[in-house]
Amino acid sequence: MPERPEIKQAADKIKATVTHSPVEEIFFAFERLKPYESQLKNHRITTVDTKGKAMLIRLDNELTIYSHNQLYGKWMVRQAYDYPKTNRQLRLAIHNHQNSALLYSASDIEVLDKDELALHPFLNRLGPDILDQTLNLEQVINRLQDKKFYKKRFATLLLDQSFLAGNGNYLRSEVLFVAKVHPTLRPIDCNQKQLQKLAEAALTIPKQSYQTKGITNNLEIAAELKAKGYKRQEYRHWVFGRESKPCYICSTSIIKDTTGGRRYYYCPQCQKQ
């Protein structure tokens, strides 16, 4: 599933290519949305926002296209009507005279007016966005100490979108590693220094991932490994996807575990219980 940095990167591309001129055509794969094709045609996209893993494409007629990629959704931005060769199913296409923004495989797509957007059940459940520039260290620490969250294990808590919106599997593992916190601990089990480190990692790791297109490892380590010929998936992360490989800090073998059917990774030496 794309996580918050990837959704924001997709939104940036869409915003850069489809907001400069009016929409010439919109295609929806779902019959319930077909009436909106004519309603949105010839209108201008004013902005492309994101909240957590949701994307909000706002138009000048006060309607908003809401989408969530879920597990398999993928946005592509191409020249106008230049469809890629893919086995994916096209769910949404936005065309102007120069470019097309294409959403494949996702099924969670809606068109909402202002009132519907304000009452949207998923958006209303979301906590602060991990890439929100106004989110600060004190706010994250306060949420960690909130009674709604402080007895949840971190392996579960960091996927709870009502806690912080936008985290997923890889960010969960990477944030916990950088903070040196074991995944099975809870906020209530941690001292103030641990909570401080976790809050710092919760802010810095998603931001680095967004800026580097997915690299959460130390950038010097990543650059050195890349120069030695390592593939991107081998230097991209500190621990995620690196089961049985040596920790970059202490050389202990990385462990893979699961909770709720979703995998996470950690170093048993750096992240002691």
Describe the global form: globular
What is the CATH architecture assignment of the largest domain?
Orthogonal Bundle
The number of distinct structural domains comes to 2
Helix content: 25-40%
Low-confidence stretches: none
Order of secondary-structure elements: HEHEEEEEEEHHHHHHHHEE
Mean pLDDT: 96
Query: What composes the largest sheet?
Result: 4 strands, antiparallel
Would you mind describing this structure in some detail?
It is a single chain. The protein is an alpha+beta fold and 273 residues long. The protein has 2 domains: 4-125, Alpha-Beta Barrel (N-terminal domain of MutM-like DNA repair proteins); 137-266, Helicase, Ruva Protein, domain 3 (Orthogonal Bundle), CATH 1.10.8.50. It is 32% helix and 20% strand. The protein contains 10 helices and 10 strands. Strands 1-6-7-5 form a 4-stranded antiparallel beta sheet. The protein has a 4-stranded antiparallel beta sheet with strand order 2-3-4-8. It has a two-stranded antiparallel sheet with strand order 9-10. Helix 7 (169-179) crosses helix 8. The radius of gyration is 20 Å and the shape is globular. It starts with a helix and ends in a 7-residue tail after the last strand. The mean pLDDT is 96.
